[in-house]
Amino acid sequence: MEPQLGFIEKSFDLRYSDLVREALDELPDCFTITDPCICGHPIVFASKGFLKMVGYSKDEVIGRNGRIFQGPETDRRSVMEIREAIREEKAIEISLLNYRKDGTPFWMLFQMCPVFSKEDGRVINFVGVQVPILRKLRLSGNGIVRSEMSLREAGNGAREILFRCCRSEVCSDSILELGHASCLESVSSNDDREFDINEPCEASELEKTKASTAISNILSVLTHYSELTGKLVCRKRYCLSGNRQLGASLNICLGRIKQSFVLTDALLPDMPIVYASEGFLKLTGYSRHEVLGRNCRFLSGTDTDPTAQFQMKECIQYQQACTVRILNYRKDRTSFWNFLHISPVRNASGKVAFFVGIQIDDHCKNHETNSLSPEMQQLSVVGAVKVAVRSLSMGASTS
Amino acid sequence: MILSIKRVPTVVSNYQKEEAEEGARHATGCGRNCLRSCCLPGAKLPLYAFTKMGNVVGEKGSFDIENKEPPVNFLDSLLLGEWEDRMQRGLFRYDVTACETKVIPGEYGFIAQLNEGRHLKKRPTEFRVDKVLQPFDENKFNFTKVGQEEVLFQFEGREDNEVQFFPNEPIDIDNSPSVVAINVSPIEYGHVLLIPRILECLPQRIDRESFLLALYMAVEAGNPYFRLGYNSLGAFATINHLHFQAYYLATPFPIEKAPSKKITTTTGGVKISDILNYPVRGLVFEGGNALEDLSNVVSDSCICLQENNIPYNVLIADCGKRIFLFPQCYAEKQALGEVSSELLDTQVNPAVWEISGHMVLKRKEDYEEASEENAWRLLAEVSLSEERLQEVKELIFEAICCNMDEEIVTRVMKDESDVTPQSHDDMDGLKGSRPAMVPA
């Protein structure tokens, strides 16, 4: 995990310059910024307010996925809605029960929106703002029912705690002081707590406005600092027609796969690489922008056996899977034996849309007896890619 | 009177076709490399042993464990790799990734697939649908008759601290292993069958231990798009040999989007809710202080249903965090001639996947005309009426020793009739026609 931490923060700095953190830290809001292009869709920035609210230190949060804040009572359907918003690269606003580091749950309004690259329309980040919801015993129709139920179910004692809890939340600043969490603790340690914490919680208009304002402020900081590096970002996607993009969803799916592999577009002339895994970049020494858009043949060199190349060509032509052992070259021109498996990948219409190529450095092909064989690992990548491409090209048109 | 329907049985194994053609020929050393005594000696298969400890899902102290960033998930990789291997070896009857699929526009996003190859070459067979529990019949097709090459790995729980994997482990005949095998007529990528204690030849009937195994598989795979399903007899299971199904589909199922309303929480911390605003009425179970709590409440509910001769389907979703239970009556209606020919003509058998919103269609015209309305209409026929479900719920809650709060239940019913005015209009009238299903 540790060597990755630097890498995670660096990717953020490269786009927004290393001055961006300071500017974001000046914002009072609770928010996180995630990077869907990195394996595991980790948090790359967490505001001071956010860290204070959840009781984690910065190092405990950076590099982790946002799901660490969910807990047993977090509504699974809401979690699914967030997951789908990420896949569909859409903004979302939802009330969510999250957990602090000490295990105490709290309701917050979660607003998330994608940040696009101005250049190619790719999703670069997701910004997620969390506004703690102040719970009141509302006097609206539904609210009366709820408080009556909690009275009946939980008894007077619990009701008192409920009141105390609400009052202390009201008293504290919108960012909960950690000290006040002990009050919530007393609620959650009570067996009858469900009826307050478990009941769905609706955010007020004020809280919604607060979240939207925070999103706007963060976006303007990000936009401004992306101008410093020339890698501009924006809140609205500028669609470049004819430029086939792998969506963030596919990127997230593929990003989970650690092995070295590339995806090439079978429908574009000369089958350019449209995705290259971290493992591939590490193996070959190239950076991502040096390989995207190119045909894989740049890996070959003077001593590459033409018959292996021919074999690959034939497989691709007949849309079949094949495995070859081929001499390839890294960026620094050192060579390695590539134990390469290639397979066609069909999209939701059933047509071959991509080829996936999974590389294993034959020299490092050591196989621990109690793990998957290298061959099986390659096939599992093929499977994962097939599932991702098929499912994500179904054209979700859900509302 | 015996109620039965005629349907084309799904070919789940390459050895199932021969079965029909060869009749009841019993040879020793059958040469098929099957999983019976003739071929088992010396047979080896990969073995995945998960750890039974530390899988507490609902407890506060444990969610750190649960949320540890998983490396590439092992079971996921094993399953996908072995499945792709069988695909490249040509063991499937068709390439399911070549079957067109789409999300149907609408609020719920029902998923349609055009699968013209799945039902070819089989004669319709008579299936008895009025008995949810039937004894195991050695003479019919069962999973001990599949070829060993169709089996991907053995799956078992151990008390160890970490997952163990043995690429080539002998099959322990005395300890009847649970195995994961391919379905040679897949409805999506990675379609497999989990067959608990295969050599014990258990009939299709839920028991606590087997259900927990299935739940563990969902937890171990750790992928919200890998779901397990179960069909009872009378609810479109075609093979009376205990099995769960599972496959990958990286999009939410409509049932997962349906809102729910809590009925109660059990002493073990399992939250039970009504599914709202969905054409098939049912229950959703989630939470639990430990995985066993969730598992036991659901399996006890299933046991209650099967003992009361009520056909049902189960979906294990969201890495084992949410379980949907649907008592159903479609096959019974079909047998009684109460399903319209228009619906029957589509030959869609509403088993667990269809009920969850994944419709596998056999005719191109049905695929092209697929709409949320059509899907809804079919599924509405599957659902029990509100009154009938109420009776069934009372049976279930009695069985799992949980009292429903009358007031809440009444309120929920009212809410639901408010939100789904278009559905199940004629259902209530059917109530009287099936007293046989619940001995009062």
Automatic annotation (TrEMBL), chain A:
Keywords: Chromophore, Flavoprotein, FMN, Photoreceptor protein, Receptor, Sensory transduction. Residues 16-89, 273-295 form the PAS domain. It comes from Sesamum indicum. The keyword Flavoprotein applies. It comes from the Eukaryota. One of its GO terms (biological process) is response to blue light. GO terms for cellular component: nucleus. GO terms for molecular function: photoreceptor activity. InterPro entries: PAC (IPR001610), PAS (IPR000014), PAS-assoc_C (IPR000700), PAS-like_dom_sf (IPR035965). Residues 320-374 form the PAC domain. This is Protein TWIN LOV 1. The keyword Flavoprotein applies.
TrEMBL record, chain B:
The keyword Transport does not apply. InterPro entries: GDPGP, GDPGP1_C, GDPGP1_N. Residues 416-440 are annotated as: Disordered. One of its GO terms (biological process) is glucose metabolic process. Residues 416-431 have a biased composition (Basic and acidic residues). It comes from the Eukaryota. Residues 75-247 form the GDPGP1-like N-terminal domain. One of its GO terms (cellular component) is cytoplasm. It is found in: Cytoplasm. Residues 254-402 form the GDPGP1-like C-terminal domain. Keywords: Cytoplasm, Guanine-nucleotide releasing factor, Hydrolase, Nucleotide-binding, Nucleotidyltransferase, Transferase. Its main location: cytoplasm. GO terms for molecular function: GDP-D-glucose phosphorylase activity; guanyl-nucleotide exchange factor activity; hydrolase activity; nucleotide binding. Belongs to the GDPGP1 family. This is GDP-L-galactose phosphorylase 2-like. It comes from Sesamum indicum (Oriental sesame). The lineage of its organism: Eukaryota, Viridiplantae, Streptophyta, Embryophyta, Tracheophyta.
